[in-house]
Amino acid sequence: MTGKTPPVVIRRFGIGLVALALAATACTSGTAETQSGGSEPTDAAPPAELVIAPEDGAGEVAPNSPVRVTAENGVITDVQVAQSVVDEASTTGEEQDPGLYDMTGTLNGDGTEWVSDWNLRPGSEVVVTATAENDAGEETELVHEFTTLAAVPGQRLELASNYPSSGDTVGVGMPIVINFDLPVTNKEQVENSMEVVSEQGIAGAWNWTNDQTAVFRPEEYWDPHQAVTVDLHLAGVEASEGVYGVKNYQIDFEVGRELIATMHVPDHEMVITVDGEHERTIPVSNGQATRRFDTTSSGVHVLMERYEQITMDSSTVGIAEDSPGSYSVEVQYAVRTSNSGEFVHEASYNPAIGSANTSHGCTNLRMEDAQWFFENTLMGDVLNTTGTDREFEWNNGWGFWQKSWDDWLAESVTGEPQITDGSGTPGSVHGEQ
């Protein structure tokens, strides 16, 4: 924008072609002309009229303002929204696929109103080109240009981390975990800016574990062997007062085969099925249960990070060195199942594997079985444990399946499920309209 208000451009097409067609008809139908007796021509259809908001030439438009196009005397046939960032302070300078910012919109039933689905990029020049058609097929085009408010350094919401990452293959219990770099207070707008699409559509919903972490979980485990895409339309969303998202992101991952591990702790074994078929039974030793800390938790665990070698140190979970019950031991092939210190790992030093529960709460395996478990499981695979009096907490690691679907949905700020079939999110991403 140069400070000069651009002209409103209105073009109408098709009138000449209609006149030409009528002339050709008259030349080839002399009988019809005689029968008409020179009757008066009918009134021409009025041209379609378009209105676009925000207004033409506006500056510093709030990025979370909707683009709205309305038509009278016709129907909207096309809307194009082009965005060019002109304030580099509103970006990170990182190269991105321009397609991440393609604007889609929703047209009402009679074709007279179109509203943008997503917000606008902060600090950008926006050109909206709308076309409508009247009853006679004549077109009207209207163009508006305006600029959006730039994001202020220090008040730009960005993605801090996410699980899974693009390219990952995960298990059927995998949640989608989004960590932001700043607190979010407008959680409903942010939830509606994050669209999950899977090849096999299913109902799901977002919950917040804190003001900076949102988690998506489907109603049931993901169907195996499918692709999932997470479109984070964060650019322009007002996360909190004066704090705007500045970038869009896309995460693409695969759901692999369905691996479910089950343990009834008193039985001293883990049973593994893959795609519904028995794969392996592994002897184990679980927590000795002399205190809560030493008790393996019962519930649906999701496999998390993994280490080929790690030191199991009780001081990391609040038991000071040299205090009763403290320990420090090197183990191999460790897979985390909670944030409170539970792992499935090799414990060659434990002679009670398969016969007694003597661990400090972890699931101990023999070396061969631990290596197999490490190499053949994925982040997101499910470990369902029963038989103890310590219930696994829903917010301990990825214990999100501990909540019923009704409870999970009730805790979503939108209160409505998001169907992962590409039909969009439950509500608006925009601010006050």
TrEMBL record:
Signal peptide range in chain numbering: 1-23
Span of domain L,D-TPase catalytic: 259-386
UniProt GO MF annotations: acyltransferase activity; peptidoglycan L,D-transpeptidase activity
Gene3D superfamilies reported for this sequence: 2.60.40.3710, 2.60.40.3780, L,D-transpeptidase catalytic domain-like
Active-site annotation: 345, 362
Pathway membership, UniProt: Cell wall biogenesis; peptidoglycan biosynthesis
GO cellular component, one term: extracellular region
Presence of the UniProt keyword Cell wall biogenesis/degradation in the record: yes
Keywords associated with the record: Acyltransferase, Cell shape, Cell wall biogenesis/degradation, Lipoprotein, Peptidoglycan synthesis, Signal, Transferase
CDD domains xrefs: LDT_IgD_like_2, YkuD_like
GO biological process: cell wall organization; peptidoglycan-protein cross-linking; regulation of cell shape
InterPro entries: Big_10, LD-transpeptidase, LD_TPept_cat_dom, Transpep_catalytic_dom
PANTHER family: L,D-TRANSPEPTIDASE, L,D-TRANSPEPTIDASE YCIB-RELATED
Protein name (database record): Lipoprotein-anchoring transpeptidase ErfK/SrfK
Organism of provenance: Nocardiopsis sinuspersici
Lineage of producing organism: Bacteria, Bacillati, Actinomycetota, Actinomycetes, Streptosporangiales
